[in-house]
Amino acid sequence: MSYKEKIDAILARIEQTIVGKREISELSLTALLAGGHVLLEDVPGVGKTVMVKSLAASIGAEFKRIQFTPDLLPSDVLGVSIYNPQQMEFEFRPGPIVGNIILADEINRTSPKTQAALLEGMEESSITIDGKTLQLPQPFFVMATQNPIEYEGTYPLPEAQMDRFLFKLKMGYPTRDEEIEVLSRSESQIPPELTAPAIALEDLLGLQVAASNVIVDATVKSYIVDCATATRNHASVYLGVSPRGSLGLMKACQAYALISGRNYATPDDVQYLLPYAFSHRIILHPDAEYSGHSIDDVLIDVLAKVRVPFVRANSV
Predict the structure, then answer these.
(1) Strands (E), 139-232
(2) Which of 47, 52, 82, 281 is the most buried (most CB within 10 A)?
(3) Whole-angstrom Cα distance, residue 234 to residue 246?
(4) Residue 154, CA distances (Å) to 44, 108, 129, 150, 168 in order
(5) Where in the numbering of this chain does the ATPase AAA-3 domain appear (predicted)?
(6) What is the dihedral of CA 115, 17, 172, 150, to 10 degrees?
(7) Under DSSP, is residue 139 helix (H, G, I), strand (E, B) or coil?
């Protein structure tokens, strides 16, 4: 199969379980192909967990779930060394972070110390235990969820943690017809983890390599940097997008171009993906918030004011 056929097979496989969320499926797959991670923020019961399970099942990946609670410890995430009296040495028992697709469920319900246990894995695909570094399986993809409504007993994610996520997405409620379809499918639907994958895990690794080889013209790179710089200089913004955000957006554009059947990224890709890649990396001035300004307003203003480059398809 071609790259496009493999990607379409993955999305079709996800849609066997998820109804009416094609855009979220594409964006989640974009993040996975770009080597990034996703923060899903929405109310309970809209299909966040099913989305992660379906994505893992579609590529035959090892799925692990971490239920974040106030009493969760870093060792509960990373693993722990236990003394084996027969061997007279310590043995490392890996935690649930050692897998391919990791669901960090309700990540904001645990302490910042435990949240930070994910940082090294999300950035470097490795964890360090007792001074030893362990490489995590590839691909390694974290999809974290949090409820934006309940604040009691939660710990807001620190900026260092938020910056590790490539995208911040919202599932949203289904339409009336979609919800009826959900009810109809639930009567006889097979759980996603029990169905055959659309592609092998090795094929997914090949798609990641292909995404990294997508051409990004110099003018598109400049456009990304100009947009990031505009957030830093915006009058309403206290903290703008970091260079990690610029790099993440470029990689996302490469992956999205591959999903769209192209071997080159365009300014349109930047405009489409920028809100998902930048919104969670911006902090507004308190005065701006009091005045009713929002991060969405800032991003709309940035996209309106930064000059869009013209790129010929045959020039890249």
Answers:
(1) 141-146, 167-169
(2) 52
(3) 16
(4) 15, 5, 27, 8, 18
(5) 37-167
(6) -40
(7) coil
For residue 257, give both structure tokens: 């171009």
User: Residues 184-203, buried b or exposed e (16+ Cβ, 10 A)?
Assistant: eeeeeeeebeeeebbbebeb
Tell me the pLDDT tens digit for each residue of 78-136: 988 887 888 777 788 889 999 999 999 999 888 888 888 898 899 899 998 877 888 99
Note if the pTM is more than 0.85. yes
Which domains occur in the chain, in start order?
A: 3-205 (3.40.50.300), 213-307 (1.10.8.80)
- Pick from 136, 134, 141, 59: nearest CA to 101: 141
Whole-angstrom distance, CA of residue 263 vs CA of residue 190: 36
* Residues 189-194: contacts with CB under 8 Å, at least 24 apart: 189/17, 191/53, 192/16, 192/17, 192/50, 192/53, 192/54, 192/56, 192/57, 192/58, 193/53, 193/56, 193/57, 193/63
CA dist 23 and 169 (Å) reads: 10
